[in-house]
Design goal:
The complex is a heterodimer of chains A (72) and B (216). Helix content of chain A is 60%, strand content 6%. Chain A contains 5 helices and 2 strands, in the order βααααβα. Chain A has a two-stranded antiparallel sheet with strand order 1-2. In chain A, helix 2 (16-23) packs across helix 3. Chain B has 216 residues and is an all-alpha fold. Helices cover 83% and strands 0% of the residues of chain B. Chain B is built from 6 helices and no strands. Chain B has helices spanning 5-38, 43-71, 79-116, 127-152, 155-184, 193-214. In chain B, helix 1 (5-38) runs antiparallel to helix 2 (43-71) and helix 5 (155-184) runs antiparallel to helix 6 (193-214). Chain B is globular. Chain B starts with a helix and ends with a helix. Classes of the chains: A mainly alpha (72), B mainly alpha (216). The interface between A and B is medium-sized, with 25 and 24 residues.
Chain lengths: 72, 216
């Protein structure tokens, strides 16, 4: 799963701890999601989407679209 | 100045090593105190030894605290960071409480049980009931603390615990039958409960800390 979490967080000038606090998860959890070491559960993904006021698919993607673009 | 990636890993390694050192010191202290009291040794020597061990534990604890503090990012006044700080405090309070309960049980239990029989191999009449009450209370305390812990942590912490537990369980499920079968074939001595338990626990902890290092 790919995501834009780091970019969205940087745009708001938030630290990983700040985002973790707002989501109710640890800084390590934010780091694990940003670096692709942990795929968030659906409830957490929805929470992230609500926090950034964006549709889930604008934050998370399975890489298929970029793969298809790269192939084409 | 912020730590480099190597610095962060080094601090985590030091935290793990010093935590093991504290456990070693506690084990050594309980063994020494037990042996000393059993053989009617001087109480002053015991106090002096325990004082030295406590000083060693305090020194290790201070370095662990300093490293843990350095690993915690400096927080600004953001709403999320205040929530995060409260969340971390809750996490370490519960975990610290559980660790303290485990250490206290191990040290007090081993010294009390060994001193109670006074080297005779037979415990006094009060020991079984007192011990049973202690075991029940500690079991309830650990179950309650674990429940509090798992209802307050996030999904990454739960996943780390689940992976650790899964690997620990597999080590147990493979090691015990293999050992049992080899024993039946006359190749090895009878399976040892404590060796199998410790192997399972070390495997579980190894996987847990490996995953922690990956996301540090």
């Amino acid at each position: 799963l790919e995501n834009r979490l780091r970019v969205l967080r940087a745009e708001r000038g938030w630290s990983q701890a700040e985002l973790g606090g707002r989501l109710g998860v640890s800084r390590q959890a934010v780091n694990a999601i940003e670096t692709g070491k942990h795929d968030p559960s659906l409830p957490l993904a929805f929470k992230v989407a609500r926090l950034f006021a964006l549709p889930i698919e604008e934050i998370f993607s399975d890489g298929a679209e970029s793969g298809e673009r790269g192939d084409g | 100045m912020a730590d480099t990636n190597g610095g962060v890993v080094w601090r985590w390694v030091r935290i793990v090593v010093l935590s093991l050192a504290i456990m070693f010191l506690l084990g050594m202290a309980s063994g020494y105190v037990t042996a000393h009291l059993k053989h009617g040794g001087s109480i002053l020597k015991v106090i002096g030894f325990v004082g030295l061990v406590l000083a060693g534990i305090a020194a290790c604890g201070w370095i662990i605290f300093r490293d843990a503090k350095a690993l915690t990012p400096a927080l600004s006044e953001g709403e999320g960071e205040r929530l995060y700080a409260a969340q971390r405090k809750r996490f370490w309070t519960i975990l610290g409480g559980l660790l303290l309960l485990g250490f206290a049980t191990g040290v007090v239990g081993s010294v009390a049980l060994n001193v109670a029989d006074n080297g005779s191999g037979a415990w006094p009449a009060w020991a079984p009931l007192a011990g049973t009450i202690g075991v029940v209370l500690v079991s309830i305390g650990v179950a309650y603390g674990s429940w509090r812990f798992f209802t307050s942590v996030d999904e990454v912490e739960v996943a780390d615990n689940l992976w650790g537990s899964l690997v620990g369980f597999y080590v147990y499920a493979i090691l015990f039958p293999a050992w049992w079968a080899l024993n039946k074939l006359g190749q090895v001595p009878e399976p040892n409960d404590w060796t199998i338990l410790m192997a399972s626990m070390f495997a579980a902890l190894g996987v847990y800390f490996y995953r922690k290092l990956l996301t540090a």
